[in-house]
Amino acid sequence: NAGVTQTPKFQVLKTGQSMTLQCAQDMNHEYMSWYRQDPGMGLRLIHYSVGAGITDQGEVPNGYNVSRSTTEDFPLRLLSAAPSQTSVYFCASSSRTGGNQPQHFGDGTRLSIL
Amino acid sequence: LAKTTQPISMDSYEGQEVNITCSHNNIATNDYITWYQQFPSQGPRFIIQGYKTKVTNEVASLFIPADRKSSTLSLPRVSLSDTAVYYCLVGLFTGGGNKLTFGTGTQLKVEL
Lengths: 114, 112
Description:
The complex is a heterodimer of chains A (114) and B (112). Chain A has 114 residues and is an all-beta fold.
């Protein structure tokens, strides 16, 4: 069972570069989210999606874009990387069926911006 | 969004019961309370979820008082492998979207 797969696992960027963090899930979940985790800050929601073609902003959306063209994939794009975006990024998914279903997380992408 | 407050850290010994309390004074009527466990270099993993009273599964119990302004995660007979960060999550993730808020988590350290 693959669950939620994030790629790459590690990435180093220079300030101003752009890149896309990939997230894919094979559980046919409607809901997908992106979080960032910084030391001492817990997890903070960046963007989320309740289904293909529908996205919305979370707590810290600035500097990030998302799209949801398929149920399976939810990529996160950094438009112009800044050192403040150095963090660990987690993607999560959950089912819409059956009430408030728990989220399944990937193992993260560790991103460093120089 | 409902904010949560948890102890930053707790220490315990193998075989003991551990109780971690989370405060969520502004919890909304439709909000659920969910707990996750996170090991280093891994994503959070779901432990237990509840709405009111008590919920028990094979790994933990969750106690929620009538006013729902706090909740307690109870881990029976912890072992070294329970050393992790535990997050209390309050919110609703159905229908209109994601309104979940993660707290800063509680670092549980279990020793021999």
